[in-house]
């Protein structure tokens, strides 16, 4: 890419380790940060029997209770101490916006240190999905992303990630979302932040969500999707975890020249290397990888790039290891990045399907409520 003077602009080199800024305190320790054994140890530290940890776990994960007054099996004299020790407040809702007749709910949260993050609850006829943030801000610097332009404030804790899901689960259980009481069936790590740059907390959250109740929420790992822009060493690490979540690779371009501009981490890990790591994940887990591709007018939506994308993906054969998910770009105000023309989008789909690659166009929800991650926080 070149500037107006004709000089070649070098892609920004990003470090392999993405440490958040120093000087921020840690979020309060919460039951969801801990395994059941660790919760029992915490109970012992407070001079309490181990079964109190299981009772609190049942309230939090099993019954979705957040009001201490409803925890009537806890001694009245110790209830406040127990709740304070195990279930401290982690985040405060600042704004909740609704769209799609109330079935899409976006919440802006303030964390203990003033950081702002977003989560979205989306109810469909056959499922309910919570899209969660894993970092306050993001260090990946993708130029078309509202979060990426704000930079990274800090990593979120395991419990802060989990609490976004539990908030959605409570809303569903209490019938606050049109359609009557229900359950959260899916979680996608596609909100603010790069999940694999906060690897330990994200894996902790995945385990809390998929551990059987009362240790966790008891979700199926197949209902959890972890997105990444392509941190290859972390994809390889995830491959070894033995948790069959769906991996979503935010590719956005099939060639290094363009992807270096759209996804700066590509200057460290090329398209070929990134796709290879994703293929290895699919081969090990037998879980189909989702290739996320934000369609941008005149940037990455040319028909020849669809052909090139098919070439890149089919290097590893056509045994159905991959699915392409095209995303109509939700542009940020004043951005040069805009959504593709529908005709170009259709041709892109046609080219991929002609090569035998399953392709869908993502259902766009929440445009009228700043649906793209980071837009609501940026407006604050």
Description:
The protein is of the alpha/beta class and 380 residues long. The protein folds into 2 domains: 31-86, DNA polymerase, domain 1; 91-379, Aldolase class I (TIM Barrel, Alpha-Beta Barrel). The chain has helices spanning 36-45, 51-62, 79-86, 146-150, 158-173, 199-210, 232-239, 256-262, 271-285, 303-314, 342-354, 375-379; strands at 91-99, 104-111, 116-123, 128-131, 135-137, 152-155, 186-189, 224-228, 246-250, 289-295, 322-328, 359-361. Helix 1 (36-45) packs across helix 2 (51-62) and helix 7 runs parallel beside helix 9. It comes from Nocardioides flavescens. S-adenosyl-L-methionine binds at residues 193-194, 227, 250-252, 330. Its EC number is 2.1.1.192.
Provide a concise account of the structure shown.
This protein has 380 residues and is an alpha/beta fold.
């Amino acid at each position: 890419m070149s500037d107006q003077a004709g000089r070649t602009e070098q892609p920004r080199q990003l470090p392999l380790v993405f440490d958040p800024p120093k000087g921020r305190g840690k979020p309060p320790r919460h039951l969801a940060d801990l395994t059941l054994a660790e919760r029992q140890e915490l109970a012992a530290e407070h001079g309490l029997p181990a079964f109190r940890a299981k009772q609190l776990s049942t309230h939090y994960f099993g019954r979705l209770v957040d009001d201490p007054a409803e925890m009537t099996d806890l001694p009245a004299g110790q209830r406040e101490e127990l709740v304070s020790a195990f279930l401290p407040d982690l985040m405060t809702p600042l704004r909740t916006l609704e769209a799609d007749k109330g079935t899409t709910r976006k919440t802006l949260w303030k964390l203990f240190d003033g950081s702002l993050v977003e989560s979205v609850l989306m109810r469909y006829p056959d499922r309910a999905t919570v899209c969660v943030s894993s970092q306050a801000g993001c260090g990946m610097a993708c130029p078309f992303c509202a979060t990426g332009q704000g930079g990274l404030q800090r990593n979120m804790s395991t419990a802060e990630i989990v609490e976004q899901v539990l908030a959605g689960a409570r809303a569903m259980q209490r019938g606050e979302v049109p359609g009557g009481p229900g359950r959260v069936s899916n979680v996608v790590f596609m909100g603010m932040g790069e999940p694999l740059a906060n690897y330990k907390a994200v894996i902790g959250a995945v385990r809390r969500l998929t551990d059987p109740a009362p240790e966790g929420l008891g979700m199926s790992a197949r209902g959890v999707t972890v997105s990444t822009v392509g941190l290859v060493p972390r994809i390889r690490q995830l491959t070894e975890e033995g948790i069959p979540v769906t991996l979503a690779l935010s590719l956005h371009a099939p060639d290094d020249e363009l992807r270096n501009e759209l996804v700066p981490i590509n200057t460290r890990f090329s398209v070929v290397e990134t796709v290879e790591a994703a293929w290895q994940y699919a081969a090990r887990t037998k879980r189909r990888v989702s290739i996320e591709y934000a369609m941008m007018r005149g940037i990455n939506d040319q028909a020849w790039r669809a052909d090139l994308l098919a070439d890149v993906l089919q290097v590893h054969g056509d045994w159905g290891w991959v699915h392409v998910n095209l995303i109509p770009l939700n542009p940020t105000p004043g951005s040069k990045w805009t959504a593709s023309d529908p005709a170009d989008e259709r041709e892109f789909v046609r080219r991929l399907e002609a090569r035998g690659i399953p392709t869908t166009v993502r259902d766009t929800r929440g445009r009228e409520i700043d649906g793209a991650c980071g837009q609501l926080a940026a407006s604050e």
